[in-house]
Amino acid sequence: DLAMFQFNIQQYQEALSGFESALQIAETLDEDTGKIYKIANSQYMLGRCYGSLKQPEVAISWYEKAVELYVEIKDTKWALSGLEYLINLYREFKQDEQVIASYQRRLEIFRELGDRIAEYSSLYDLAMFQ
Questions:
Q1: What is the rounded (10 degree) CA torsion for 63, 67, 68, 70?
Q2: Are the CB atoms for 49 and 12 separated by under 8 Å?
């Protein structure tokens, strides 16, 4: 995928254009083609691009959208990854309520998965932040 290659070689502006185009195409697909997953992936990568372009407010917006879709389709791996990026960005902007909400969301996912070690880690991170 050209946009991913451009991202990997730090051509973020060019990658941004590619992921925007991918999102537009994904939004026109039929549901049975993995539409939501493709939309979420495009949104996630738009977040990564904007983060790399030092536009964190825009990155946050894209990550939030992607995380919502990943949670909806129960793709916990990518939901958790998006939440990690959000936590870091929220911390950067001193948005403490959003940091706590993201930690709590992460905790819920780990509990649903039955991952006691990750649950412990999330509780610890949440306690250390507060």
A1: 140
A2: yes
DSSP state of 29: S
**Element spanning 20, H or E:** helix 12-26
pLDDT in tens, 92-109: 999 999 999 999 999 999
Q: Quick one: tokens of 16?
A: 């941004």
Identify the CA nearest to 130 among candidates 90, 104, 100, 105.
Answer: 100
107 CA to centre of own chain: 16
Q: What is the pTM of this model?
A: 0.91
Q: In 3-state terms, what secondary structure has residue 38?
A: helix
Can you read off the two tokens belonging to residue 45? 């990568």
